[in-house]
């Protein structure tokens, strides 16, 4: 394919049009069709979504009612029934997809395993029977704490098959974080592995689960342990069961039951503006429809694709675009267990060439790391199988976009910069690769049924080109339904900033062409290497340390991570500051939350900047952390001298 056309080269106005070749083969390649469908999707959403739901999903009992919308509670296709696992597996059996690879797995040590749709179906059926033999039934919760191995997807699909609500906990979380999540949703079961490979070392997952369950967890009856690394683990009698033992006794015949469209599918915990993580609840048909339709049109999925999304199943991207969306489309999904730089920083490019990956979806923080490791690692590979690239998780800076376009996409692959959230379930704003000209750094235009608005504090729309807060004003099928056990927080967090419309927590602007530019979070949530971390969560861990009196955590712009975590800490009066204590506090946070939340910098300060009413003025701390002049009004500060002391802190 020839280069995509560059119609203009000045910064921000560079525009990359899809090539004629890409357009011609795209699932959606006509601008006229896109415009017509978009119009219909926002003007007659029920008609649009009814048609898509009938075309893209397999129903046991067809729905009659499309949407029941009592702000902020939505019910989509409520009188219809289906089974999500059946939609991802059984419907491909007896078709030419049956013997096609559903999952190609590559472990970090280099082991490779392929599961066809038929084989994956068999494993899921066996595991579903195994779960049932342990007494798991519709509505029960199961926590999954596993590495990126096919068994993680098998566990998710088996839960979905029998109506068990899964909550996947990212393998980097600590025992304390597991305990909080397991207790919050009262999981009866934990599914884990003995370990997982990361940079040549074993991450001891089972040992971490054991530690979590010793911390005061009463709800867990069983732990299923998949053997991945064969490291020694302790198996507690009656409670712990080996995956392979459970499977050995299970039949591969399993007739999936039909569940109501609104049956809960999973809870996924994400960070919010308080110390307590939020359990985002997604239900069945609407979520599956959102992930299926976006996989089809945004990734332009075809039967011949080898599709690789590098996200871990512990995050929403792994749920929606490693498991549910691609499998429902009958795609071949590549799963890789380990680190991108093991044994060398060329591992991803090697995987792409060896497996013939055609679609590659990753995060800007990874792209920036590759840029830093150097072009030589990329140049050894042809990457000629690639035809589409994607980005997700944080704003992609134009430099990284251009490098991705040139070095990985060889100027021939469209890039889809997809904006969405754990809460939205599926991609909301994105270019369509066969239709939308891309601008480096912008996530472009709304997907079907999505109506984004940028509003000021009074709820007025801001003019194009000006920044404001991002809202979504129309209900969409894959929207979160509530927060587990905390509907009040759900209403307050998302629906009361401006009453009745969804507040995304992001700052953004539209440009003259109606392209969306997301700046980043404007609440107390940081995006560190594409991971959401609540500042309040880190603060509450810090103040729990015996030597700490007070803590305030802010983000500092970072070339690689997007945001770096900077913690301002005041110590109890009889405690002395030292480098050792700094290190101890960093380790403390990593131990309590997870290594990915390890602070980049701890700064000891005699006091924090507060208003007379005692509120910490974070914007001052942000400026100090960034090493820039403190801007804006500081006359409301209770003690103006604090600023100078903070600036002098290290
Ligand atoms: O700030 C936005 C940023 O990531 C947040 C959502 O984080 P999470 O729920 O963990 O989901 C990440 C994967 C979907 C958003 O509020 N974000 C995500 N994608 C983009 C982005 N910011 C800019 N551009 C994006 N493409």
Total count of helical runs of at least 4 residues: 20
**Structural domain count:** 2
- Which ligands occur here? adenosine-5'-monophosphate-propyl ester
Amino- and carboxy-terminal Cα gap: 53 Å
What is the count of β-strands?
32
Mind telling me the CATH superfamily name of the largest domain? ANL, N-terminal domain
Largest sheet: 7 strands, mixed
Quaternary structure type: single chain
Shape: globular
Query: Per CATH, what is the topology of the largest domain?
Result: Rossmann fold
**Beta-strand proportion:** 15-25%
How are the strands of the largest sheet arranged? 5-4-17-16-18-19-20
The rounded Rg comes to: 24 Å
CATH class term of the largest domain: Alpha Beta
Mean pLDDT: 95
Structural class label: alpha/beta
Helical content stands at 25-40%
Overall CATH architecture of the largest domain: 3-Layer(aba) Sandwich
Uncertain segments are 1-11
Give an overview in words.
This protein has 20 helices and 32 strands. It starts with 19 loop residues before the first helix and ends with a helix. A seven-stranded mixed beta sheet has the order 5-4-17-16-18-19-20, sandwiched between helices. Mean pLDDT is 95; it is low at 1-11. Helix 18 (579-592) links the parallel strand 31 (562-571) and strand 32. It has two domains: 6-252 and 260-440 and 460-507, Rossmann fold, CATH 3.40.50.12780; 529-647, ANL, C-terminal domain (GMP Synthetase, Chain A, domain 3, 2-Layer Sandwich), CATH 3.30.300.30. Helix 2 packs across helix 3 (45-56) and helix 10 crosses helix 11. The chain is α/β, with parallel strands linked by helices. The structure holds adenosine-5'-monophosphate-propyl ester.
């Amino acid at each position: 394919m020839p280069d995509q056309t560059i119609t203009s080269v000045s910064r921000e106005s560079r525009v990359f049009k899809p090539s004629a070749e890409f357009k011609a083969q795209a699932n959606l390649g006509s601008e006229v069709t896109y415009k017509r469908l978009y119009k219909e999707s926002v003007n007659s959403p029920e008609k649009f979504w009814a048609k898509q739901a009938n075309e893209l999903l397999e129903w046991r009992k067809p729905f009659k009612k499309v949407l029941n919308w009592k702000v902020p509670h939505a019910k989509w296709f409520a009188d219809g029934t289906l089974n999500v696992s059946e939609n991802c597996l059984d419907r491909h059996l007896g078709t030419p997809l049956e013997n096609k690879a559903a999952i190609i797995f590559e472990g970090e040590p280099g082991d490779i395993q392929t599961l066809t749709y038929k084989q994956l179906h068999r494993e899921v059926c066996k595991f579903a029977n195994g779960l049932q033999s342990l007494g798991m039934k519709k509505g029960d919760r199961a926590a999954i704490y596993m590495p990126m191995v096919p068994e993680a997807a098998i566990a998710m699909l088996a839960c979905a098959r029998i109506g068990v609500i899964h909550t996947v906990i990212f393998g980097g979380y600590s025992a304390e974080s597991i305990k909080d999540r397991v207790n919050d949703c009262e999981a009866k079961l934990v599914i884990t592995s003995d370990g997982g490979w990361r940079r040549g070392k074993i991450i001891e997952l089972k040992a971490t689960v054991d530690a979590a369950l010793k911390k005061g967890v009463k709800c867990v009856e069983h732990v299923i342990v998949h053997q991945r690394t064969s490291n020694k683990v302790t198996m507690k009698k009656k409670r712990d069961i080996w995956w392979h033992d459970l499977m050995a006794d299970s039949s591969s015949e399993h007739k999936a039951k039909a569940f109501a469209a609104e049956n809960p599918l999973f809870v996924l915990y994400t960070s919010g503006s308080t110390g307590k993580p939020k359990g985002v609840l997604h239900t069945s048909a609407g979520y599956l429809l959102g992930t299926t339709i976006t996989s089809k049109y945004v990734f332009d999925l075809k039967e011949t694709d080898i599709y690789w999304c590098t996200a871990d199943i512990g995050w929403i991207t792994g749920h929606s675009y490693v498991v549910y969306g691609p499998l429902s489309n009958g795609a071949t999904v590549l799963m890789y267990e380990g680190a991108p730089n093991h044994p060398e920083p060329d591992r991803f490019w090697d995987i792409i060439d060896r497996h013939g990956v055609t679609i590659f979806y990753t995060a800007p923080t990874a792209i920036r790391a590759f840029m830093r490791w150097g072009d030589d690692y990329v140049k050894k590979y042809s990457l000629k199988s690639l035809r589409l690239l994607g980005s997700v998780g944080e704003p992609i800076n134009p430099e990284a976009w251009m490098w991705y376009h040139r070095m990985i996409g060889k100027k021939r692959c469209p890039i889809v910069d997809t904006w969405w959230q754990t809460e939205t379930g599926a991609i909301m704003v994105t270019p369509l690769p066969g239709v939308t000209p891309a601008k480096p750094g912008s996530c472009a235009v709304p997907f079907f049924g999505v109506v984004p608005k940028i509003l000021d504090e009074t709820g007025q729309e801001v003019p194009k080109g000006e920044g404001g807060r991002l809202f979504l004003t129309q209900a969409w099928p894959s929207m979160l339904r509530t927060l587990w056990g905390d509907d009040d927080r759900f209403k307050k967090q998302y629906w009361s900033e401006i009453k009745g419309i969804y507040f995304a927590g992001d700052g953004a602007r539209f440009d003259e062409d109606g392209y969306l530019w997301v700046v980043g979070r404007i609440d107390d949530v940081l995006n560190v290497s594409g991971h959401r971390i609540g500042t309040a969560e880190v603060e509450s861990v810090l103040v729990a340390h015996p030597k700490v009196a007070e803590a305030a955590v802010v983000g500092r712009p970072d070339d690689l991570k997007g945001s770096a975590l900077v913690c301002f800490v005041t110590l109890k009066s009889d405690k002395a500051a030292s480098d050792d204590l700094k290190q101890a506090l960093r380790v403390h946070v990593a131990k309590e939350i997870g290594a990915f939340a390890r602070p980049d910098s701890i700064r000891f300060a005699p006091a924090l900047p507060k208003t007379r009413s005692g509120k910490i003025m974070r914007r001052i701390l942000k400026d100090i952390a960034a090493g820039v002049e403190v801007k804006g009004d500081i006359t409301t500060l209770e003690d103006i001298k604090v600023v100078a002391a903070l600036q002098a802190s290290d």
